[in-house]
Amino acid sequence: MLTSDVINQIFGIKEAYELPNVLSSIMHDEQRREEIFRQFLELEQDLSYDWFTDYFQTEHGDRAKLKQDYTPQGICEILKGLKPNGARTIADICAGTGGLSISQWSKDEEATFYMEELSTRAFPLLLFNMAIRNIDATILQVDSLTNDFTQGYRLTKKENGFSRIERIKTDYEQKEQGQEQEEEKFDYIIMNPPYSLNWQNKEFAEDKRFQEYGLPPTSKADFGFILHALHMLQEQGTLAAILPHGILFRGQQEGKIRQKLIENNLIDAIIGLPDKLFLNTGIPVCIIVLKKNKESKDILFIDASKEYKKGSKQNTMEQEHIAKILSAYHDRKDIDKFAHVARMQELEENEYNLNIPRYVDTFEPEEVP
């Protein structure tokens, strides 16, 4: 079993804070990293989840500055169920150590991944997680809001082995050699970005990602991440973002962006989740699903706030809860006190406010004694 002590022992470290630096060195030594890979696989053969989520979040997660909250397995499973059939190119924005991407991956499917992550501490583990699973991927250490690029690697799948790792040239090196960086588009984009992050937006007024919708406010970058991902979405693509509920109803500039997204018929579904699902924060979040070329002009609302198993410190979503949510999403029908399909007229009457209680009434009258 991969406990924190076992992980530290494999890497030859005494304390967890040493891991990022040690792992960065190991990942550049093919023979050494493959020895480490084999030691891990002797102890754990289940590759369907991120072994490092709790280890990293407990020891390295920076909630104060980077607002890092790593995605619980239950939410990963929901996003797996939202993945459109035939999606072959998958992007993970603010990928952390790769838990969301791992949940979308299957060794029996041919898919390529693209990942962005800013944290210097998370980046080596993200590289490790993809390479040990022999995944085709492009992994960049980059600020998704500003596009400031630090380093990047191309992982190439090898037959009966682990991914080959090659360094990607920096933007400066590409410009020096007269190479233009092509914009990639993806079938499915997933993300759990830092919530309500402060950012300096003044220099991005002319950025093509924000020109149509306007700049998100400096105090809350949530829509900045959505618009960044939306710009990378191909014409039949789906985007699923995990964000705080405030993005559904806050006004001013965020309200204008939300209204424009609705008018452009891009928002497909809003799924409200229970509170206390995350390790370091008790706030409830929602999943906002956006699609290009939607067939209908409506939005599906699902209130899954009561779909959980209660824990002392952290609640969990079991398979029955996940199945109920995904069934409602794919059926796209009204379900009393759980789901509602809102037409455009209803959205307009609510002034483009997407707060879930406006559309799904979960009120239960108290029994009279």
Structure description:
About 30% of the residues lie in helices and about 20% in strands. It contains 13 helices and eleven strands.
State the gist of this model.
This protein has 13 helices and eleven strands. The chain is an alpha/beta fold and about 375 residues long.
Q: Any idea what the radius of gyration is?
A: 21 Å
Number of beta-strand segments = 11
Strands of the widest sheet, in order across it, are 5-4-3-2-1-6-7-9-8-10-11
List the secondary-structure elements in sequence, H or E: HHHHHEHEHEEEHEHEHHEEEHEH
Low-confidence stretches: none
Structural class from helices and strands?
A: alpha/beta
Q: Percentage of helical residues?
A: 25-40%
Tally the helices.
Answer: 13
Distance between the termini: 52 Å
The dominant shape is globular
Overall residue-averaged pLDDT value: 90
Share of β-strand residues: 15-25%
Q: What's the story with the biggest beta sheet?
A: 11 strands, mixed
Question: How do the strands and helices of this protein lay out in sequence?
Answer:
Elements: H1 4-11, H2 19-27, H3 30-43, H4 53-59, H5 73-82, E1 89-93, H6 99-104, E2 112-117, H7 123-132, E3 136-142, E4 149-156, E5 164-167, H8 171-176, E6 186-191, H9 222-231, E7 233-244, H10 246-249, H11 252-263, E8 267-272, E9 285-291, E10 298-303, H12 319-331, E11 339-343, H13 344-349
Parallel strand pairs: 1-2, 1-6, 2-3, 6-7, 8-10
Antiparallel strand pairs: 3-4, 4-5, 7-9, 8-9, 10-11
